[in-house]
Amino acid sequence: MRHLLSVADLDATAATALLDTSDRLRQALLGREVRKLPTLRGRTVITMFYENSTRTRVSFEIAGKWMSADTVNVSASGSSVSKGESLRDTALTLSSMGADCVIVRHPASGAAHRLAGWMDRGQDVTGTHTSIVNAGDGTHEHPTQALLDAATLRERLGGIAGRRIGIVGDVLHSRVARSNVLLLATLGAEVVLVAPPTLLPVGVDQWPCRVSHELDAELPALDAVMMLRVQAERMHGGFFPSAREYAVGYGLSETRAALLPDDAPVLHPGPMVRGMEIAPAVADGTSSAVLAQVRNGVHVRMAVLYHLLAGAPE
Fold it and tell me: CA-based angle 105:269:168, to the nearest 5?
C-alpha cells in the first residue's frame, strides 16, 4: 500500500487485513505498562490539518508515538500556509525534510489525491518517498473513520457480512457516510441510509445502499445504527425547519432507541450534538459504542501506518 486516499482503494481482502492488524496491535499492547512498540522507530509522521479536529488528529499522533515514530503536527494557522504558501509547496517542503508519511485533512474534496500525485512526481526531486493518508477531504471521504467504525462493528457484532447497518442524518455533507457505505458494502453488509430528502446528495441512487426517509420503520430491522453529525458549518441555506424539527424526525431519542434489537450498537463519529442528533441517555447508555470507536481509532490508525511504512505482514 503506497497511500490511503479512499475506501475505494481497498478490496475486502485488504480491508480485512487492516482490521486484523489492528486487532493484533491491540493485543500486543494489552498489559503493557509502557505502551510502546518499536515497529516504526526512525520513521517520521507528520499530521497536516487545514480543518479543526480532535479525535482524528490526536489518535494519529498517539498511533505514531505508540509505534515509536517521530510525530510532528503542522497546523495551517501556525505555518507558512498563513503567509499564502500553497498546499503543494508545503507538502513538498515536508517531504524534502524527510517525512515518511503526511496525514492531511483539507476542506477541498480531492485534496489528498492531488497531494499524492505531487508527492509521487516529486520523489525524484526530494529523494524521499512520502505516503499520504486522507484524514478527511471536504465532503468526499474519510477512510480511516470508516475502518475504525468497521472495527467497532466487528467487535460488537462478531462480523459484518450479512448485517444490516443504518446510517442516519446529514448524508449530504458527510464524508464519513460515503466512506462507510463503500466499506461496509465491500465487507458484505447491507447499508440503509435514512435522511430527509434535503440531506441526500445527488447520485446517491448509484451508491451500494438503500435509501429511506422513515427512521421509525427501519430501526427494528437494523443490526446497528450510526448517527451522523449535522454539519451546520457546511450548510448554506435551509435544509430543515429547525433543530427541534430535525430531532423529532431523525434524532435518536430513548423511545426510538428502544425500537432497536437489544444487542444493536449505536455509533456516532463525533462530535455529538446531544439532544438533537442523539439523546444524552442513548449516547451514554449500554448500547453506545461511541467511546469504543475512539479507542479503536488509535489501533486502526496504527495498522494503517504499519501497512504503509513497515509493509503488510507475510
Answer: 120
Contact 271/265 with Cβ under 8 angstroms?
no
Residue-wise pLDDT tens digits, 265-307: 999 999 999 999 999 999 999 999 999 999 999 999 999 999 9
Q: Is 56 annotated as a binding residue?
A: yes
Whether residue 24 is annotated as binding a ligand: the answer is no
Q: Is 201 annotated as a binding residue?
A: no
Residues 87 and 31 in one domain: yes
154 is in an annotated binding site: no
Residue 175 annotated in ligand binding? yes
Q: In this structure, what are the phi and psi dihedrals at residue 131, rounded to the nearest 5 degrees?
A: -85, 145
0.70 exceeded by pTM? yes
Residue 140 annotated as binding site: no
* Secondary structure E strands in the chain: 44-49, 70-75, 101-106, 131-137, 164-168, 190-194, 210-212, 224-227, 266-267
| Domain range for 35 | 7-141+297-309
Contacts of 294 (CB under 8 A, 6+ apart): 55, 59, 270
For residue 314, tell me if it sits in a domain. Answer: no
